[in-house]
Structures are given as structure tokens and as C-alpha cells.
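Good day; I would like, with your permission, to put a structural problem before you. A protein sequence and the C-alpha cells that stand for its backbone fold form the material at issue. The record follows directly beneath this note:
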Amino acid sequence: MFRRLFIALVCIVILASAGTMLWGWQGLKTLETPISLSEPQLFDVPSGMSFSQLARKMEVEGFVERSLWLRIHGRLFPNQLHIKAGEYEFTDGMSALAMVQAVVDGDTKSWSMQFIEGWTFRDLRAALAKGERLRHLTTDWTDEQVMAELGAAGEHPEGRFFPDTYLYHSQDSDLDLLRRAFDTMNRVLEEEWSERAEGLPYDSAYEALIMASIVERETGVPYERGEIAGVFVRRLNKGMRLQTDPTVIYGMGEDYRGRITSRDLRRYTPYNTYRINGLPPTPIALPGREAIHAALHPEEGQSLYFVARGDGTHKFSNSLREHQQAVREYQLNRREDYRSSPPPQTSEAQP
């Protein structure tokens, strides 16, 4: 009798254990089931969140039916417990385990922001202020505070940030992007300066950066950059003034209303290259690598002048007489759709 009861008890225990194992196995298998989402959803993992808290949050937000199975999974696989803070994008067809793996790997959602060649530092800061999912630390800072925080106290910010597309995460700040653009510009300028052509009229890489910014603002047509740089370099070597309109516009600041007059050309500012000799004191815009390269590798030739044709390109002339004729042809008889350079580009933060 006792033996029969013992055997029955053992059978019950075995069956219960088998049932529990089957129940557990089926529960864990649900973590591998693809989840149906009508659109991608963002999931935030705050700093300091534990794995158990992650499991409960995924249950509350509907990514798993029961957080129990995730917690059991975490005990069975301790390497899954080391989650990383950030904002994650969960998409249709992902399983709960795939979502957890993304959080463990730190595969956070990224956004992008583009800084455009030819922008001013004011343009750059305006774009940063609109940055989606970006922590805004510098919104109320002065330009001087920004440069001091970047380790360049007392330096002018114009032209010091490399125009490019930068990816960032929700944990990043506007200062992080500024630092990356600042460091990238320093690196690019150092690389280009080390391979510069001989006989250039620059005493420093910074002067080359100033020239590059002028070249950038003078044309958006890539193949003209080297030729325009050549004109400016020859004028500097001959002691001629640069006489370039973008420097006048920059010096006018908020007084610029879309056109410059002969009075504006006569008005003295430190940037008016019709009134000053040599280069202006700082860059006037963000130059890209191509403009920097052109400033350091100007095309050879004899042209000393150029004038906008009205389609974004320029007519180059070797003599003042030729230049005056070109001005009469392209400036005094302007076409209705006249423009001195290609239309300006705009940029917003993109996912």
C-alpha cells in the first residue's frame, strides 16, 4: 500500500514538473513571436533602469503580454541584464527578444542634422535650436560662451564648424554636435594645410580658412571653386583688393536687405574688401572641404576678375577692360531669373 502511494506521488510530481516545464517553455517561446505594429514606436530606457523595470515597462506599453517571461529570461541569460539607456525604435515584426537585444546592444534610435556649406554660425545655431530629440544646452548661451566651452575662449566662431550631416541620439546635446563639428573642421583644415601648394599668400591655416569661406560664398558650382580661388590669390599676390560682394554683405550684418548698393560698397566695415587690403579678419561662412582644398590649391591662370552670368556660373576676365565689358553684358542687362549663385539650401533634423 505504501509503495503504491509512493509511486503515485512520484508520478504526480513528475507530471507536475513536466507540466511546469512545458508551461515555462511555451511562455518563453512567446518572447520569440513577432509583434505586429502599425508603425514604428519609440521606447525610452532611462538611465539606471533595471532589467525587471524594463520588463514591466514593456508589458505596460504592450510589447509583451506578461513581464514574467522576460524576467525569467533574464535569470536564465544573465548577459541580457546589462541594458543601456537611450531611446529605441521598435518596428513591426520584431520579437520581444529582438527588442531586448537592441537595448542590450545599445542600438538606439538616431536622428540626423545637416550643416550646410555657406551657412553662417547664426544659421547653424538656428538649426540646432530646432533639433528634434536633441537636448538643448546652449540655446541661451552667447557665442563667446560656446567657444569657451569648446576650449577656444576668445576665438571667433564663424567658419570654425565643419558642414556635414551629423547623426545623434536622444541622449546627445547641441553642445555635443557643436564639439563634433568643431573638431572635424580642425582635423580637415590640418589635413588640407599639410598638403597645401607652394607660394600661397597665407601666413596661417586660419587665413586659408578665411579664403575658403569667401570661395564658398562666391559660388555653389563645384568646378569653379579652384578658378575663383586662383583669381583671389593672384589679386593678393599683386597687392590688389579682393573686392568681393559676400564680404560686404557679411559686414553689413542685419542691415543687409537682399541687395547691396554703391553706397554699401563705399561704407567701411572690417569685412568690406572694397575698402580694406588683404583678407577680412575672420571667415564669413562655413566652408566645405572642397572650398578649403581650392583655397590651398588655386588654379593657375591669368584671370583677375569675374562676374556672375546670372545662372550660377561666372565669366572670368584677364583685364579690367574685359571685365567691364562682361559687367555690361551680364550685370547691366540682367535677365528676369538672374541669380549670382545657385539657390540656398535649407536643412532640418531628419530621422
